Amino acid sequence: MQARLIHLMDLKTLRAVVDCLIPPDDFAGAYEAGVCDYLARLFQTDMVEQRDFFSAGIEAIDAEATLRFNGPFAALTPDQQTLILQAIESGDVASAWVIPPQRFFEMLVHTTAEGYYSDPQQGGNRGSTSWVMTGFEERAES
Fold it and tell me: Fewest C-beta in 10 Å: which of 10, 67, 96, 103?
């Protein structure tokens, strides 16, 4: 499913963005937990009409990173990535956005959280990572 999403946006950027929002620690970060798979499914079904909006936001993140730090978002340091996302959240962007940056940021945060904490059957929360982390589901004995 990710392959179809790649045609709409840069998977490296998307991966870096979702992992910046929910980074890996003792548990999987957003990417490893399947958030990109969840988003791919979401933008092919329930939110197909929002796909272009979301894709424009991901492209604008890279444009913002290039303007501010002379490189793509995925290549930036974690501190630089955080600064970019904070600027987008507050609407204090330096590049020209074709969509409202704050509205995009809200969608980005909500859909990333949905993918991370969703029922694994919806494409995210691979291995019930977030459920185990929160105690909703017991860790499987190996």
Answer: 96
Of the candidates 66, 130, 125, the one whose C-alpha atom is nearest the C-alpha of residue 95 is 66
Q: What is the 3-state secondary structure (H, E, C) of the chain?
A: CHHHHHCCCCHHHHHHHHHHHCCCCCCCCCCCCCHHHHHHHHCCCCCHHHHHHHHHHHHHHHHHHHHHHCCCHHHCCHHHHHHHHHHHHHCCCCCCCCCCHHHHHHHHHHHHHHHHHCCHHHCCCHHHHHHHHHCCCCCCCC
- d(Cα 121, Cα 50) in Å, to the nearest integer? 22
Q: What is the pLDDT along the chain (142 residues), one digit of tens a residue?
A: 444 444 445 889 999 999 999 999 888 889 998 999 999 899 888 889 999 999 999 999 999 999 999 999 999 999 999 999 999 999 999 999 999 999 999 999 999 999 988 877 877 777 777 777 777 766 544 4
Both tokens of 82, joined, read 């955080």
